[in-house]
Amino acid sequence: MKRSAFAQLLPHAGPMCLLDQVLEWDTGYIRCSATSHRDPANPLAVAGRLHAVCGVEYAAQAIALHAALGASVQGAAAVPGYLGGIRRLQLARARLDDVPEDLIIQAERQLADHGGLVYDFSIAAAGAALLDGRLSILFPKRPAHHE
After folding, report:
1. CATH architecture for segment(s) 3-138
2. Which of 49, 61, 95, 114 has its CA 20 to 30 A from that of 141?
3. pLDDT value for 2
């Protein structure tokens, strides 16, 4: 699935939509590709350099897309979430802008409930691990409904 088919499902637009393609997904997993890490105008780059920690945003967008795709299959809209935490983040390199191959972003849902989501993620290029970790996504608390 190309960006034109999923861009409206993400809260980011234009150059801030970092993903190019959904390679595969199911109810618990998504695998995407991206080339925007090589773009000198990448909105996350500083002085043309994209620090590897920016891979967290690639993973967060893949997770948001996974949640939106799952909701759309059920005929619902995705609940907007906020990055609540990053755990076990491991960086195998300092930068992403100098990676010549496409990034492959994988995320696997570990937990989903009314309060949020927890996903393990990894980003690789040409089979080499670049970074991985766990992201928690929190949903805003809804006010209690009293009748």
Report:
1. Roll (3.10)
2. 61
3. 78
